[in-house]
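TASK: fixed-backbone design
INPUT:
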């Protein structure tokens, strides 16, 4: 893909297989070969610093992070602020919030655009989201597009079609036709399997191939593929390429799974059942009364973080870690596993900060914290520690700041 001219693809590897690095390799190759000079990376706000660090640390690419402040400063240097830098990272929210800003982005003549977490681009024929419309306008102007998502079809067929439509609007222009094609892939898959098997093809199988590739004369290729000549394998491969170009998602979707990639350690889930403290029970009851207008989904989400509910009533003086059984259990685990690297992932930044204070008050080895809002040097220090081969201090991460490539013997989620 890195050697393609203006690649427009959807990278849909499973979580943890390195889509960020894969995209970095593609854009690095494009920059080295001169196929691209200006690159725009659009990501959720919480992933901006991660991309900034990964591009610098792994590929020595110095991207500029554009937010409201940087955009305002750059307006003094050029009519179009985005023309002041060749390599830019910005958030999806930053892109869609201002019509003028979006116009400047569209006019900046990018060669390649990367969009991470592309499943956040919500689309329907009647009402596409503002985020989707913003990326669609950019996709019409930018030659090369890399969309990244680990869940290509999780949000339904319509959402999957919407992303493919960004890459090739001519090929994916009719949703109903796309659904019909999806339901008729079996003949195509069978035809590819026949060609890969290398066996002689029957007359009916040759006719099936002719029907699937019907717009041009492929009789010479069929004869070559069904012969004992030296070019038989090349002919079969060319027929497979023709089928790929004419059916399905063609050459725009690439997906690797853990089952297909060797070398990953087996994951083991260990659940620990702990009692719910009376302090939390009281806080939850009061919160339920005061939040009667909340939906069932909102109430269920709040229940996942009882320490946050308790803190809302107690304020800054609340010390939930003094009675939370999870703290006692985790402190005991860390004490008995001092030689191991441990990664603690908290859903809230405030929880990570409280856990850090808890360790300090207990005179335990305080973990290094990485979270949104940290100085860049401070945020990357825990990542460097976990990447070392020798044991390092524990790392406590807030949402979206957990290092994807870190090796930890015991990751724990909060």
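OUTPUT:
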């Amino acid at each position: 893909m890195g050697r393609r001219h203006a690649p427009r693809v959807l990278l849909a590897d499973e979580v943890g297989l390195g889509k960020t690095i894969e995209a970095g390799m593609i854009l690095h190759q494009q920059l080295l070969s001169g196929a691209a000079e200006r690159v725009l990376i659009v990501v959720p706000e919480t992933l901006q610093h991660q991309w900034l660090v990964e591009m610098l640390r792994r590929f020595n690419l110095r991207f500029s992070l554009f937010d409201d402040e940087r955009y305002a400063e750059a307006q003094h240097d050029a009519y179009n602020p985005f023309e002041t830098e060749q390599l830019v990272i910005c958030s999806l929210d930053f892109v869609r919030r201002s019509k003028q800003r979006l116009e400047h982005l569209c006019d900046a003549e990018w060669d390649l655009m990367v969009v991470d977490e592309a499943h956040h681009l919500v689309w329907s024929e009647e009402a596409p989201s503002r985020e989707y419309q913003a990326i669609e306008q950019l996709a019409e102007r930018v030659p090369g597009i890399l969309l990244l998502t680990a869940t290509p079809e999780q949000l339904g067929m319509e959402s999957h079609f919407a992303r493919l439509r960004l890459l090739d609007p001519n090929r994916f222009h009719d949703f109903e036709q796309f659904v019909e094609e999806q339901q008729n892939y079996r003949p195509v898959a069978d035809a590819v399997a026949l060609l890969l098997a290398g066996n002689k093809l029957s007359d009916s199988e040759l006719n099936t191939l002719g029907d699937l590739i019907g717009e041009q004369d492929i009789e010479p290729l069929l004869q070559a593929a069904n012969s004992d000549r030296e070019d038989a394998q090349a002919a079969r491969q060319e027929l497979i390429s023709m089928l790929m170009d004419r059916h399905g998602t063609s050459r725009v979707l690439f997906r690797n799974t853990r089952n297909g990639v060797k070398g990953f350690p087996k994951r083991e889930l260990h659940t620990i059942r702990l009692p719910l403290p009376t302090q939390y029970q009281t806080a939850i009851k009061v919160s339920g009364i005061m939040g009667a207008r909340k939906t069932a989904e909102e109430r269920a989400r709040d229940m996942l973080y009882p320490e946050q509910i308790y803190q809302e009533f107690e304020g800054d003086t609340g010390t939930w870690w003094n009675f939370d059984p999870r703290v006692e259990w985790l402190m005991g685990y860390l004490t008995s596993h001092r030689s191991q690297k441990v990664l603690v992932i908290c859903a809230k930044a405030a929880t990570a900060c409280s856990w850090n204070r808890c360790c300090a008050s207990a005179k335990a080895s305080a973990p290094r914290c990485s979270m949104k809002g940290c100085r860049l040097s401070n945020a990357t220090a825990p990542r460097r520690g976990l990447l070392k081969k020798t044991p390092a201090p524990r790392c406590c991460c807030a949402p979206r700041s957990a290092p994807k490539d870190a090796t930890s013997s015991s990751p724990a989620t909060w």
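COMMENT: The longest strand covers residues 39-43.
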